[in-house]
Amino acid sequence: xxxxxxxxxxxxxxxxxxxxxxxxxxxxxxxxxxxxxxxxxxxxxxxxxxxxxxxxxxxxxxxxxxxxxxxxxxxxxx
Length: 78
Description:
The protein is an alpha+beta fold. A three-stranded antiparallel β-sheet has the order 2-1-3. The chain is built from three helices and three strands, in the order ββααβα.
C-alpha cells in the first residue's frame, strides 16, 4: 500500500462513515509526525473523527494538490 513519502504533495480527503463529517489532511505534516515510510494502511484505522469521535470508521481518498499542468505531466506516456 501507499507510503506517505510517495504522496508528499497531496492531501487525504477523510469522511466519517458515522456522521459524514469531512476533512482534508495535508500529508507533509503527517510525514513529519509519522515518517516517510509510514503506510496509509497503518494510519487509516487510527484516524478519529473530531466531530463524532468514531475511530477507524472512515472513507478516504488521496487528493493531488497543485496545478493541472503538473498533474498531467507524463499522463500520455505509456
